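Hi everyone, sorry if this is the wrong subforum. Our group has a chain we'd like a structural model of before ordering constructs, and none of us has done structure prediction before. Sequence below.
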Amino acid sequence: MNIIFCGVILFFIAFLCQIIIWKIHIPERQTKALVVLFFCILTIGLLSLVIISHFYTITNWPVPRTSSDYLHITLLFTSLTLAYMITYSAIEVDSPSLLIILKISDKGTQGLDRKELEETMNDALLIMPRITDLLTDKMAYLEGDQYKLTRKGKIVAKIFIIYRKILNTGKGG
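Answer:
Right subforum, don't worry. Here is the predicted structure as tokens:
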């Protein structure tokens, strides 16, 4: 019980810190900022728990007692953080499907004309923000008129290629 309690509390502290920081200034490289922020909170939290556990060794407070407890808290926190980061990447930039649904919803019961949808859903709205993200995250770079993957981009691409092969899925979204 104390493992779950401590892991979830540390995660929510990190989440609240993210909200506060994002209200002040949204970082340019948001995913990297999330990783740094959340794992700094984990480190500070674990150190705080070590200190607190020395003061409450006699009581029944829900503090970790063994190195195994700290490992489990770290695993829980890391799992929650990775799951959150995957979810966050989906809301960081609007997905094409979400943009289409919102566009149709804005028109209400009258519906959205097919031609209007095709005119508004263009490369500037759907493709360029993603290319900008790749450049910002240093997964790709522009050389002349050609986009090329960096080493980091090639690694990410290979991971997805292998994952898709394992799942036996073809190309597509």
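For your construct planning: The mean pLDDT is 86. Residues 2-92 form one domain.
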